[in-house]
Specification:
The complex is a heterodimer of chains A (333) and B (315).
Chain A (H helix, E strand, L loop, with lengths): L1 H10 L5 H17 L8 H26 L7 H15 L4 H26 L3 H20 L4 E2 L3 H8 L1 E2 L4 E2 H19 L1 H11 L1 H6 L4 H27 L1 E2 L4 H14 L11 H19 L5 H18 L4 H13 L5
Antiparallel strand pairs in A: 1-4, 2-3
Chain B lengths: L1 H8 L2 H23 L6 H29 L5 H14 L4 H27 L3 H20 L13 H4 L1 E2 L2 E2 H19 L1 H11 L1 H6 L4 H27 L10 H12 L10 H20 L4 H22 L2
Antiparallel strand pairs in B: 1-2
Helix pairs in contact in B: 3-8, 3-9, 3-11, 3-12, 3-13, 4-5, 4-6, 4-11, 5-6, 5-11, 8-9, 8-11, 9-11, 12-13, 12-14
The chains are: A mainly alpha (333), B mainly alpha (315).
Chain lengths: 333, 315
């Protein structure tokens, strides 16, 4: 028992803020539900885990990049391109399709990471170029339409529900990857090196961290994770198609920030990102129960992202202090 | 003295950069000369027309890049929103419809600029959220379809021509001159460049940084709105799809022009040049029968190349 709590201590997010946000949302939804039962049912749980298995992997990859005080726009490209590549190469052997898709994402991350390290440049601009290139290749491969994935058995297996209809095989795969990431982050040097590099790159390098290798490695891993999410989604929808930038990145960024990652770098844990992603999926599923227009749900994610971006802004603390002084006079709090 | 400068210019990294740039330019010029049909008046007008549309958004992006906020991914969506507002307000007459479109574009971007300037929020994230919000709310209002004007007559002035040039090219020419003057000759322009060079130094010298950043995005929204209403008048309808992808072309033209990505340096004429280069490449590809998809790939290569070259220059 004590060993379990020790493991939990080690992999749990700092001070549990993401957990409190999640519990607060559950409580709020419970109040809205008011015993009518539209929220507390198994199908809600299934839709949360389904949404989670799409958003979660991109959020994990993007969160790791954000911990390094960088941002990777090309993950949206890896997501879309890998989906198409997986559909094209994986009809006979789905594992081959997954391998090809993930290899594309990993290669994109690796190449961009090497260029960023070599030229010492900002990741945002370079990954915008990578995004455009990959979206272009996606359009060329898909010829502007969706490509059907003919292997129905794989689609059915990925979507099959387990544990009384609460999670699909796809959800289990994503959850397993999160557990793996959390353990690697907690029990190997990689986790500490990522946090150190994100907090202070020059300092970490002086302290003996190979910051270039960390950056290249994280971008490669993020590309591979986004690609895996893309392939899994294409397989379970039975079709590969192009996605818009905001579809992929909006939810993933919001999930990472809610999960305790800061755009300033040096903060966050995989389990925190998982909680952030679950929070976002729960919000969406809970409101979908109110039969809102899907477009409204999309804009809700945008609104959440604006709010967390404000809370994460570099001047937010200063502005909050100014407001407090303006409201309560100038005495120190 | 001149010999010394020349000697410095032809040695080392700077010369390597120039060789790459001249080589790319030579390839484009060569392709243009050897593409049948490029050196005709019709193709020149088509190229100018395309350059005007991406250039107007590019002028807006120039202000954002110079202010040190790199890029916005919501300019294309703002263009669409302004086009929709223009068509929806076409019953108010030409002036009324233009005013509504410009107000829409300015408000959408200024709101993002305020969040970025006042709270220090990350500009990329805010623009992604802005993109999602505009697309989401826009889809909810329009149902995702096309919107047609109630009074087509109010579109007519924007469809008129000045000699061989259509209204889009005329507005782009005037807009470029105005943007150049705004950047180089006004107090706002100098404050913008100061904020882009060093935000902290700008605060220390008494510049109201949140105000300047908000105004920067408002200007960007204004240029997107110009592009949006001219595009809507051209196509005689508007939809959320109308502006998709223009952010990328715009950012490409800013970087190809040589405006620095880290902020604090750049100009409108550079973006005009960049837009002309991109539009020429586009015309060459169309004349040679390449698909829309292939053009996307090439734009990606161009942006990647321009980003890498620009980062070499910044050191």
């Amino acid at each position: 028992m004590r060993s379990i709590t020790r493991v939990l201590d080690r992999i749990a997010p700092p001070r549990g803020r993401p957990l409190w946000i999640l519990l607060g949302l559950v409580a709020a939804l419970a109040v809205v539900d008011g015993g009518s039962g539209f929220f507390f049912q198994r199908s809600t749980l299934f839709s949360v885990t389904q949404l989670f298995s799409t958003v979660g992997l991109v959020a994990l990859g993007l969160g790791l990049v954000m911990m390094l005080h960088e941002y990777d726009l090309s993950l949206a490209g890896s997501f879309a391109l890998a989906g198409i590549v997986g559909v094209l190469t994986g009809v006979e052997s789905p594992l081959l399709g997954v391998a090809c898709g993930v290899a594309v994402g990993a290669a994109a991350g690796l190449i961009q990471g090497c260029i960023i390290v070599w030229l010492r440049m900002s990741a945002v601009a370079l990954t915008l170029g990578g995004l455009l290139l990959m979206l272009g290749i996606t359009y060329v491969l898909a010829a502007g339409t969706t490509i059907r994935y003919a292997n129905r058995a794989v689609t059915q297996w990925l979507q099959a529900s387990l544990f009384g209809g609460t999670i699909s095989h796809r959800g289990m795969i994503v959850a397993a990857i999160y557990v793996l990431a959390a353990l690697v982050f907690a029990y190997t040097r990689v986790g500490r090196d990522v946090i150190a590099t994100g907090s202070n790159r020059a300092g970490a390098a002086i302290a003996g961290v190979n910051t270039d290798a960390i950056l290249v490695g994280v971008l490669t891993a993020a590309g591979a994770l986004a690609a895996l999410a893309g392939v899994l989604l294409a397989y379970s929808l039975g079709a590969g198609s192009a996605f818009s930038l905001s579809d992929v990145l909006m939810g993933a960024t919001a999930a990472a920030i809610i999960g305790g990652v800061s755009l300033g770098g040096g903060k966050g844990r995989p389990i925190g990102i998982a909680l952030g992603a679950v929070t976002l999926c729960l919000l969406r599923s809970g409101l979908a129960g109110l039969e809102a227009d899907p477009a409204v749900l999309d804009s809700l994610t945008g609104l959440v992202l604006v709010l967390v971006a404000i809370a994460d802004g570099t001047l937010f603390g200063q502005r909050a202090l100014e407001w407090r002084r303006a409201l309560f006079g100038s005495r120190p709090p | 003295m001149i010999a010394l400068k020349l000697g410095r210019a032809v040695s080392g990294r700077a010369s390597a950069l120039w060789i790459v740039k001249l080589a790319v330019l030579a390839v484009i010029v060569g392709a243009a000369v050897f593409t049948p049909g490029f050196m005709t008046p019709a193709s020149a007008i088509a190229t100018l027309d395309h350059a005007a549309l991406i250039g107007l958004v590019g002028l807006g992006m120039t202000f954002i890049t110079i202010s040190g906020n790199q890029l916005s991914l919501s300019l294309g969506a703002t263009l669409s929103a302004a086009a929709l507002a223009f068509i929806a307000a076409s019953g108010l007459g030409t002036v009324g419809a233009c005013a509504v479109a410009i107000a829409t574009g300015v408000a959408l971007q200024a709101a993002q600029g305020f969040v970025i300037g006042y709270f220090g929020a990350n500009p990329i994230i805010v623009s992604i959220a802005g993109l999602g919000l505009i697309l989401g709310i826009g889809t909810h209002i329009t149902g995702g379809g096309e919107v047609y004007p109630a009074a087509a007559a109010s579109l007519a002035p924007l469809q008129s021509r000045l000699g061989p040039f259509n209204m889009l090219i005329v507005v782009f020419a005037v807009g470029s001159a105005a943007a150049e003057l705004l950047l180089s000759r006004t107090r706002f322009g100098r404050q913008l460049i100061a904020v882009g060079s060093s935000s902290r130094a700008a605060i220390a010298s008494g510049i109201q940084v949140p105000m300047v950043v908000t105004a920067t995005y408002a200007v960007a929204g204004f240029f997107c709105a110009l592009a949006g209403m001219l595009a809507a008048a051209r196509f005689r309808y508007a939809s959320l799809e109308i502006g998709v992808g223009y952010d990328y072309d715009a950012f490409g033209s800013v970087l190809i022009g040589g405006t620095l990505l880290r902020g604090g340096f750049g100009s409108a004429w550079r973006t005009v040049l960049g837009a002309l280069v991109l539009a020429s490449v586009h015309t060459i590809l169309v004349l040679r029968g390449y698909s829309q998809e292939a053009q996307y790939v090439l734009l990606g290569v161009f942006v990647l190349g321009a980003v890498c070259l620009s980062s070499r220059e910044e050191r």
